[in-house]
Amino acid sequence: MHKAIDVVINKLEEKKIGKRQVNYKMRDAGWSRQRYWGEPFPVVYRDDVPYPMLETELPLTLPDSNNFKSSGTGEGPLANLKEWINFSPNAKRDSNTMPTHAGAAWYFLRYMDPHNDKEFASKKALDYWGQVDVYIGGSEHAVAHLLYSRLWTKILHDLGYLNFDEPFKKLINQGMITGSSRFVYRINTSFSNSDSSKPSPQFFVSKSVYDKWQNLKSSEFEIKVQELISDFNKGTIRIFNSIFQIKRRIFLNSTPCQR
Q1: Which residues, in sequence order, are bridge partners of residue 258?
Q2: What is the DSSP string of 176-210?
């Protein structure tokens, strides 16, 4: 697939009808939080136009306050601190704060050189420590912290600050901290598809469902699967895009696998 992409891009450039370009794709996520806690935005608004603060004005820290109630205007609690927001007759600060992703996306880099007051980490420290060897996190991290960590790492690499473009050498997902089961089983429904030219749907069910089904007779089990297929055709069930195993003749293997 990747080789084919390179061939197509090379042909487009050769014919001068296209060019190679790196695009960073990210799921939609709000970067502003209407709360007190969090990193304040290092921007100044003049005539509603945001301008980045000068490096000599950083870091911008949260003002001391014991008023964390809503402002009543749809803005964050910082809007209650009028002097801090309207610090100049011609300029104002943002009343929102950044989400925890802002700091969590790169904290492991800062750990390499935490007392450096000139840059987030020196090249010497970054080259010495390199990537994180092992990262252990739950599935709730996958579309938040880990996603942004990879994005920030790749951008910093492309800008020349890092000599690696992946933050972690190895990732271990131990499941959700709340204890929900990460055991999921894949059902192969090829026995129920009369038209061999069409791919058979594959279903993923939780361990709790499998535990209820594993002692059923084959005929009873096939009825359950047929019900799944019916629900799938109606669009009323969710298909999990992962690969797991199950102990049954019509399943793929004999041992469950933990994500």
Answers
A1: 183
A2: -TT----BEEEEE-GGG-S-TTSPPPEEEEEHHHH
Q: Classify strands 184-188 and 168-173 as parallel, antiparallel or unpaired.
A: unpaired
Amino acid at 234: K
Is the pLDDT at 134 greater than 70, yes or no?
Answer: yes
Residue 5, φ and ψ in degrees, nearest 5? -60, -45
What's phi and psi for 76, nearest 5 deg? Answer: -75, 170
The token duo for 98 is 């950044």
Amino acid at 122: S
How far from 76 is each of 33, 35, 94, CA to CA, in Å? Answer: 7, 5, 9
Convert the pLDDT of each residue in 215-252 to its tens digit: 777 778 778 777 776 766 655 444 333 323 333 333 33
Q: How does pLDDT run across 179-229, given as a tens digit for each residue?
A: 555 566 766 655 444 555 555 556 677 777 777 777 777 778 778 777 776
Cα distance between residue 214 and residue 185, in whole Å: 11
- For the chain, the residue count is 259
* pLDDT tens profile 152-171: 899 999 999 999 999 999 88
Amino acid identity for residue 86 in this structure: N
Tell how strand 132-137 and strand 168-173 pair up.
parallel
- Decide if 246 contacts 210 (C-beta within 8 A): yes
Q: What is the mean pLDDT of residues 136-154?
A: 79
Indicate the DSSP class of residue 183. B
Cα distances (angstroms) measured from residue 1 to each of 4, 7, 8, 199, 233: 5, 10, 11, 21, 30
Tell me the whole-structure pTM to 2 decimals.
Answer: 0.52
d(CA 8, CA 14): 10
